[in-house]
Fold these 2 entries.
Entry 1:
Amino acid sequence: MTENSSSILWRLFSYFSELLTMSTQIRPTDIGLIVVLGLLIILLVLNQRKKRIITNKSKQLAETEERYALLFEHSPIALLEEDLSSVKNFLDRLENEGVSDLESYFEQHPESLRRCIDMVRVNAANRAALTLYGANKKEDLLHLTAILPESQNLVFLQTVMLLLKKKTAQFLFENNSLDGRVLTVERRVVVASGFEKSWKKVFVTVIDITEQVKLRNENKAFEKQLQQTQKLEAIGSLAGGIAHDFNNILAPIMGRAELMLVESDINSEAAEHCRGILEASRRARDLVKQILTFSRQVDQEIQPVCLTDIIEEVVKLVHPTLPTTIEIKMHLPESCPRIMADSTQLHQILMNLMTNAYHAMEETGGQLNIRLETMTLGLGAFDDLSITPGLYQQLTVEDTGHGMDEATMTKIFDPYFTTKSRGKGTGLGLAVVLGILRGYGGEIRVASTLGKGTTFTLYFPVVEVAETSPQLAIDPQEPMPRGSEHILLVDDEKSIADVTTSMLERLGYKVTVRLSGFDALEAYRSLSSTIDLVIADLTMPQMTGLQLYKKIKLLRSDAKVIICTGFSEQLTSDKSRVIGIEGFLNKPVIMADLAHCVRRVLDS
């Protein structure tokens, strides 16, 4: 039938109306047959309409399913359709058996939890999911256990607990891909509508956030490194301040002892005491220099360096901090070829290696051996390392500590990897050592045996240094040069000014003392014609030694100035010569150094 069902019904109604008008001429039995025939026609019409509706709905459903399948298969997000009906049945059975706290039950029975995970079936996986997990076909992802490691069992348990409450869950998981990669993914799980009781159809979206997590961790690591750098900078600034104050304390002690030694009527016992004071003060001064060398953050100064001197300096600094159960043995040549390096970085390398050795022997004690040799490396010496043949300084640092296994040795140069307990290391030490060494064109090798110790062997390329005329050292027995010139002495520490004045006067000089830069400038304005030399402290309040130097040079361009300092990153002896300062003295000042420096500047 092609006509509208309502028009057909209307025609049937008209037909029956005509029959009824003719009812006087038709027998009753014929009327019954006519009514039945009409009803049959009506049923046929309605059935045809129902068929058409069902056909349209089926077509729409097929189109929807096709559209869903297309979206599912070609979605850029990894999609899974999972069957958790066996898991739901198991949970229901546990509840029927009286288990009220499912989470506690599974924590106490991990084997049951793993069995639950094994019950999960993956009914479908789209192309993005196959690519993500490195699968060739959908059957490779049939079981959830193929991609979910046992370490993630408790996270899966939390997902199930949320599904029981909310029918949806979202958690971060670690997944194993079929090709061996470790993934960090965000799994969003939702029970399909109509399957809330059975969990037979559960939709899962999987978002790979491995790179994001990696970047986040790297950012955290960089933040920690920045904090560590800021701490080191703070330590360097603190060390500089301590050095300045400590040198100001040492200066009068050393100066007074030296003045007592030059007294003609001092007895031998008192002289011996003075020499003891001077020796102890020199050791304290050297200790401050070593601390500054290690802690201050300055630009690299790559220059020819003798490793023997650096090793001896670091051992002197470290030795007092080691327990008596650790013995240090050094095998160093009296002279060695030079290497091009920064002294501060060499201090850092040795401190890192010796600190690691100390921690390895901290509990049991042992022996730390340090050996330096000159080696010639041929073409086949380093097949596995990028190092060129040639002459090298070979530094060996060996301990008899607990040693390392092979797995640990493969990671020791990774940034932030550490085997030490919290508070004893950041994991940056050996990574820094390797970076510095390779920057110099060198390399490092490690050998270790569990229970027997570890040996680090470092290679530094040797450089040829042109011969220079050696600087003559000051002979302490030689008479100190004297003079009679007029010197303006400026130092804000009265005790240092008094001692330095006594030294200069003992050497024959006339001294005018001022305790501030402003007073010194006024004195120089009025006495500039008679003052032959200015000795000024670098660090003073209100006006520094450098500021005073510039103002004095404006008053008299040929003025001669010596700057004294205990510690400064702004001014060194090399920098002072560049800017035109005639002399430079490190505090605490020894009388012999003062005498020779003053005479040299005055005679220049």
Entry 2:
Amino acid sequence: MDNKEALYTFGIGENFHIQQYFGVHCDHQEDKDGYVFRVWAPNAELVQLIGDFTEWRNEPLQMTKNEAGVWEVFTDLPKEGQLYKYLVTRKGGQVVEKMEPVALYLEERPGTAAVVKILEDKKWKDGLWMGRRKRFGFKQRPVNIYEAHANSWKKDETGKPYQFKELKEELIPYLVKMNYTHVEFMPLMAHPLGMSWGYQLMGYFAFEHTYGTPEDFQDFVEACHQNNIGVIVDWVPGHFTQNDDALAYFDGTPTYEYQDHHRAHNYRWGALNFDLGKNQVQSFLISSALFWIEFYHIDGIRVDAVSNMLYLDYDDGPWSPNQFGGNRNFEGYNFLRRLNGIVKYHHPDVMMIAEESTAATPITKPLSEDGCGFDYKWNMGWMNDILRFFAEDPIYRQYDFNLVTFSFMYVFNENFILPFSHDEVVHGKKSMMHKMWGDRYNQFAGLRTLYTYQICHPGKKLLFMGSEFGQFLEWKYDHELEWGNLDEEDKLNLKMQGFTSHLNQFYREHKALWQIDDSYEGLEIIDADNTAESVLSFIRKNDKGDMLICIFNMTPVERRDFTIGVPVAGIYEEVLNTELEAFGGVWKEGNPNVRTQTGLWKHYQNTLTFTLPALGASIWKIKRRLKK
């Protein structure tokens, strides 16, 4: 694409690689090798280039503006690695230093200057993974995500957070050991304050300096792929930091944000909302998404705070209805549809995930059915219900058993991911282990049962770091995980870690748990009405008809001679029991194999009788079928 076409398509919202035109690029003009700088600031009175090579404001370089509001200058002064900014005289005369909107790398915080850095094309060594991804996709594959915050997973002996060079050597072997299929990172784009966890972005193309270099992250992704682990990154296209040296009112007028003051300001988060209906903003954001997919080979994007883009009244501040008197943000709705359409056109094997908490808009329905076109939506309703249930005293669970069973009423309305994310272990909500009812022993028993229920329930899976070994304290963004828990004398955290690894491997090995995640062909409820004993039982199936019988006892009462109906006569073997000693329970060994008995149980002609562990899960499969 030549410069004229790049500029034109940017203006009509059709340039999806704007970083190839804007920002800093090597160039040759007037018999000189140098760099050309371009920035969009249509209503600025003047834009000048400043940096190490101009002694900052001492000798600024004048930029010229074209008819599309793009300012440009060529110079042979800069050297690779030097820093620069734009000195913008805003409309109205205010002079501010502004960061590069399409910077690929920024200086270390708290500075916001861009680095003169031309990123080279990497010679990737992940062709086998990329080929498999293209061939098999992800919908009929296991997806079990380890959500991580790069800055607080682990720190070195001096207290300095690991960068991706260290994470490559430490985190990837851990993911392999724990049998996760994917790792998802909270935003890795440049952000001015670690306290925001990355959700207040300023650099939509820039890799956060705290985490190392762009090349470090490329190498990390490559190593993940070589170990059969996918990489997902959180992305925030709805709102951005209101810091005055970043995108906010870039040229003195609403440039990236809405014209309307209330729509522009996100009062709840102290941020600014992108004008998602503006052509240039669409080019900017979609280019950002494709850049992360293509430059870093990432396997999925989780779009944060989708509700904020879909609904005009989602924020806490004043709002005005749309032209039809409703609360739908049509610009946001159409942007999300366009985003997914374009990403899927270029990369159909990349996962698009929505963090969205309402049910008013079809999120994973196809574009042809007026859906938003995402592949997955976080099932926030399931998460809230099940955590409330597991925090409750078991005496009362029989009265709230619908919290466990209600999700089966809408389980296939969308394509869901079942998330136990970072949001559930902060701000006084307690860690996952600490949410569980009872003493320390029962808390771990409950946690094992909860995770097993998550694995067996239809939908892909996500668990936040530290939750896999049941750390007691809430997550703190500026502290590493409580790895010392693994050295506790009772070994319950260590056994919990071992259980999670075993459970994840169990999930990967059984197609019945992931092959049919989008229809009732993969699910059969045995009994959802046993509220008195608080026991739930159902069947998961694969496309060959192989079955797993999943039974969950939600009370701390062991049930001997427990009987359920099953559809096939045979000899059944217990393939998972959450109460084994190795996992932190009290059973020395699981149930013996059981032969079904003939007898009517509900509509089933065969029954299975065994001992159901207290506050535990028992999973069975057919070892040998019997002729009737």
